[in-house]
Design goal:
With 475 residues, this protein is α+β, with helices and mostly antiparallel strands. It has 3 domains: 142 residues, 2-Layer Sandwich (Beta-Lactamase); 90 residues, Signal transduction histidine kinase, dimerisation/phosphotransfer (DHp) domain (Helix Hairpins, Orthogonal Bundle), CATH 1.10.287; 181 residues, 2-Layer Sandwich (Heat Shock Protein 90). It contains 12 helices and 13 strands. Strands 11-12-10-9-7-13 form a 6-stranded mixed beta sheet. The chain has a 5-stranded antiparallel beta sheet with strand order 2-1-5-4-3. Strands 6-8 form a two-stranded antiparallel sheet.
Length: 475
């Protein structure tokens, strides 16, 4: 069996060469036969004119010499008279036309074989004339194919040579790609393919090189992410281990036990939050997060979340504000996941907002979309930060040791949840001076409250989106 591409290329080119020879022969055969017959008929016409002039005087010596010369050329001469035909054997229709003084030419059966004939009258009054015949050029498919063995052998040899060259030329880039893929799978992300013609080969090489670069970048990010996660795990584990050892050794006793217990509890909760975020992020990547959609009043949902976060903000001296519309904003979505998005953004904002600065939770309605927004008065984000804000650990690595940072997965989890809910997540600058995170969720039913009046604190909608809705009450 021809399992390799090279063997198949050789087989195809050989078959193409053989078929081309046969088809060419079959097509050319009737053309060649017709051309040969036309040339033979034209020659008969010319000779018939000359014979007619020579034999016009009917001298027997001249006639015999002409007949002998013509037979040497494969041409038979028939003299037609009104009373007889010499020699006998011409079809009656040809004889009748000559006797009637009319010329004729074409093909006929004379003596049991196909011939070309030309008939010319000599003397119309006497009913005499001359007929020249020569064997017609004929051929059959079997005869043609039987004579093609040399051409077929040459075509087969040419097909083998051409197939070998084609296979070598076509298969080499594929073998190079297979070899490079093997090195890539073995962990060598530096491997690259040479970009050379024809067009398809550079496209394959460019796509492979882009894949290798993307894998190298992804592996680097995963390595950095694991390093940051291990650091985040080690910090609370170190605190828990140290305080647990002090309790086990009896170093911490009496009134010091309660503060130690609170510290251990806080670090344990931090670990639990980190593990939960990692699990949720892993489920999002595997499309394993369950989404239970049903009608939800987002106004009530954001108001409930605002009550919780207002209390947490006031506890650390941060001013909390909740902007809500005066009407329900109905959306078919998963309220648990929406609340998870709000909590993730609010926790991120509270972590970096200094005392006295604001944290704003807002809900706005656009035509066809509900906008959840969390703004803060913290240090904010640069345009470069906004471009990578939702990538795992990117902001964590940039600002670790500079400002308060989380686990490195919170914003990535927010982006993943927003996407699974059919929405989008964006990062930008807030009018309050810090960061602004905006999540748009689709609304299936048109709302009479949605307007296109612009709001200065809302970023431009994505392509196809509308304007912004009015601000309602402030809580």
């Amino acid at each position: 069996m021809t399992r390799t591409l090279g063997a198949r290329a050789i087989l195809v080119t050989c078959a193409t060469a053989v078929v081309s020879v046969i088809v060419t022969a079959l097509v050319a055969m009737p053309v060649a036969i017709g051309s040969a017959n036309r040339q033979a008929r034209q020659g008969l016409n010319d000779k018939a004119i000359l014979v007619g002039e020579v034999l016009a005087d009917q001298r027997a010596t001249q006639r015999q010499a002409v007949v002998s010369r013509l037979r040497q050329q494969g041409i038979d001469l028939y003299l037609v008279r009104r009373t007889q035909v010499e020699p006998v054997g011409l079809p009656v229709r040809i004889v009748d036309r000559v006797r009637a003084g009319r010329s004729d030419e074409g093909t006929a059966i004379v003596g049991g074989r196909a011939v070309l004939f030309v008939a010319r009258p000599l003397n119309a009054a006497r009913g005499s004339g001359v007929v020249l015949t020569t064997p017609a050029v004929t051929g059959t498919t079997k005869q043609v194919l039987s004579n093609l063995w040399l051409a077929l052998a040459a075509g087969l040899a040419a097909g083998i040579v051409a197939g070998g060259l084609l296979a070598r030329f076509a298969v080499r880039p594929i073998r190079d790609a297979a070899f490079a893929a093997g090195r890539l799978s073995a962990g060598d992300h530096s491997v690259r393919l040479a970009v050379r013609p024809p067009t398809e080969v550079p496209e394959l090489a460019i796509a492979f090189n882009q894949l290798a670069a993307a894998l190298a970048t992804s592996e680097g990010r995963q390595r950095d992410f694991l390093l940051s996660v291990s650091h985040e795990l080690r910090t609370p584990l170190t605190a828990i281990t140290g305080f647990a050892e002090s309790l086990a050794d009896g170093v911490t006793t009496g009134a010091d036990v309660r503060p130690v217990g609170r510290t251990v509890l806080g670090e344990a909760r931090r670990l639990d939050r980190l593990v939960s975020d990692l699990l949720d992020l892993a489920r999002l990547g595997a499309q394993d997060v369950r989404i239970d959609r049903h009608p939800v009043d987002l106004t009530a949902l954001v108001a409930s979340a605002g009550d919780v976060w207002r209390a947490r903000c006031e506890a650390v001296g941060v001013r909390a504000q909740v902007d809500l519309p005066h009407h329900p904003v109905l959306c078919v979505t998963d309220p648990t996941r929406v609340r998870q998005v709000i909590d993730g953004l609010a926790e991120n904002a509270l972590r970096v907002t200094p005392a006295g600065a604001p944290v704003v939770l807002g809900l706005y309605e656009l035509p066809g979309a509900a906008v959840l927004q969390v703004r803060d008065g913290g240090p904010g984000l640069t345009p470069e930060d906004c471009a990578v804000a939702f990538e795992r650990s990117m902001l964590y690595e940039r600002y670790r040791g500079v400002r308060q940072v989380g686990t490195g997965v919170g914003l990535a989890l927010v982006h993943g949840l927003a996407t699974r809910l059919g929405g989008t997540a964006e990062a930008g600058r807030a009018a309050e001076g810090g960061a602004c995170f905006t999540v748009r969720l689709p609304l299936t039913d048109p709302s009479p409250y949605a307007t296109t009046a612009p709001l200065p604190h809302l970023p431009p909608p994505p392509p196809g989106g509308g304007g912004s809705g009015p601000v309602g009450r402030s809580r």
